[in-house]
Design a protein that fits this description.
mainly alpha
Amino acid sequence: MTELEPAHLRAFRKSGIQPPFRLYDLRHTYGTRAVEAGIDVFSVAKLMGHADLSTTQRYVHLSKGHLEDAQKKIERFRARQHSRKISV
């Protein structure tokens, strides 16, 4: 980090990107994209080096669409379970 941070700051100043962008923003993106790609949160926590899931929760920001898809999966599962009970 002692070498990376100054290089990041120089590149950031030259880029003129607004609003400010921090290196840790990449960790938020990584955690969110990993979960949205279907990686379980326990694996994401390990990959990010977190000892506690509450730390991972601070980094993962799920979209409304992702949560809607998750709810639809639950509904499809329940419908399959219900149809199996009826056919038995």
